[in-house]
Amino acid sequence: MQIDGERMREDFDALAAIGATAAGGVDRPSLGEAHLAARRWFLERAAAAGLATRVDAAGNHSALLAADGPTLLLGSHLDSVPNGGRYDGALGVVAALHVLLAVRGTELPVALEAIDFTDEEGTLVGLLGSEALAGTLARETLRAPRGGRDALLAGLARAGLREDELALARRDPESLAGYLELHIEQGPVLERAGVQIGVVTTIVGARSYALVFRGAAGHAGTTPMDARRDAGLAAAAFVVAANELVVRDFPGCVATIGDLHLEPGAYNVVPGSARVALEFRSGDGAELEALETALLDAARREADAQRTELEIAPVGRWKPTPLDAGVCDAIENAAAALGLESLRLRSGAGHDAQAVAGVTPAGMIFVPSVAGLSHDPGESTAWEDCVNGANVLLGAALRLACR
Ligand code: GLV
Ligand code: MN
Ligand code: MN
Questions:
Q1: Label partner for 348 (CA 20 to 30 A): which of 147, 223, 254, 272?
Q2: How do residues 221-247 score in pLDDT, each as one tens digit?
């Protein structure tokens, strides 16, 4: 049994045309019009192929191959970061669909479900659909989401979803047989090693904070340099300090200030406030905790140095997550059976597998990213590698189905 690589490519290209950008990527932020169109495409493509489909209370979109037995989930996501690439998430969903098409007609002791999870990227919340399915989507997370409360409510309304019903997407763990996700690596490890398949052992934990430095706006020509309470300066000093402290004290960790917004925002006004989007990651829970303390202390120090106030709001929290050892073995064996070389590695990116791993044995297959590039329109993976990954997904699914 094999994936039809050519048909999969046609589908992948059709999907990449939805929300396509001039630079060759896609712009499909969660629950925006392009994302909703991509999700409609997925359901229509599945229905046209004769598969049953469904949308749950969290907006997760699924294609189904029914059977008497628990459900083996195969999935990823169709939303993208702003101005993102065409492979992140989309490859896993299209490959999952093609596994169902390849398996159709064969009787299995498990049902197969290709699932497109809602809002993986966190332009709104992050892992919204997969956490709802796992039963771990917290009320506080919805009250203070990464993308802001107004954007979340607008997105839910556009998708016809109700906040008070999202939790109904929870699945009974007894009803699940496991979860597999094919994804591009988004880093340079596989390409550098010249290896076709990555077997993910752990997904790093991440935390996000919305910080606001509040100083005093003032005339840029008349406010003396020593009389300023410049919120922009405090934020800029924090950006530099955060980078320095991670490099110096937390090797193996990352911290990013991915957005910085000054107000009122004019050439001739000293910034009165600066909003900073801070995110940091580690593969170890205790280290993540220590990194958080160090970063927030640095923010307080730079705020004090410029005589500004600092507001700190947590807007996202994901634990480091080991993936299932038995599923890792199944992936490795599936790759070996296809004559593909594999290596085990950690994921520095977040994934839906991280949420689903809490309720059912979960595993991830990585394929090489050209130059390790991702979250960028230039993101690319050789098509042969994509098909290899899909065939490993198929092989691993069959192994898990029949164990
Ligand atoms: C998702 O791609 C993330 O790691 O932020
Ligand atoms: Mn992704
Ligand atoms: Mn991503």
A1: 147
A2: 999 999 999 999 999 999 999 999 999
Cβ < 5 A residues, ion ligand 3 = 88
Closest by alpha carbon to 176, among 327, 360, 400, 328? 360
Instruction: Say whether pLDDT at 150 is over 90.
Output: yes
Rg (CA), the chain: 22
pLDDT over 90 at 403, yes or no:
no
Ligand number, closest to the Cα atom of 92? 2
Size (the chain), residues: 403
Q: How does pLDDT run across 369-385, given as a tens digit for each residue?
A: 999 999 999 999 999 99
d(CA 240, CA 22): 33
Cβ atoms within 10 Å, residue 284 = 15
Closest by CA to 87, choosing from 350, 344, 377, is 377
Q: Ligand 1 within 6 A of 350 CB?
A: yes
∠ Cα 122 130 200 (to 5°): 85
What whole-number distance in Å separates Cα of residue 355 and Cα of residue 342? 24
Structure tokens at 225: 């340099």
Domains along the chain?
Answer: 5-204+321-402 (3.40.630.10), 209-318 (3.30.70.360)
Burial class (CB in 10 A: 0-12, 13-18, 19+), 394: buried
Residue 248 has pLDDT above 90, yes or no: yes
Which DSSP string corresponds to 4-61? -HHHHHHHHHHHHTTTB-TTSSB---TTSHHHHHHHHHHHHHHHHTT-EEEE-TT--E
pLDDT band at 163 (very low <50, low <70, confident <90, very high): very high
Report yes or no: 248 and 355 within 8 Å, Cβ to Cβ.
no
Which atom number of ligand 1 is nearest to the Cα of residue 279? 5
Q: Which ligand is nearest to the CA of 116?
A: 2
Pairing type for strands 321-322 and 197-203 reads antiparallel
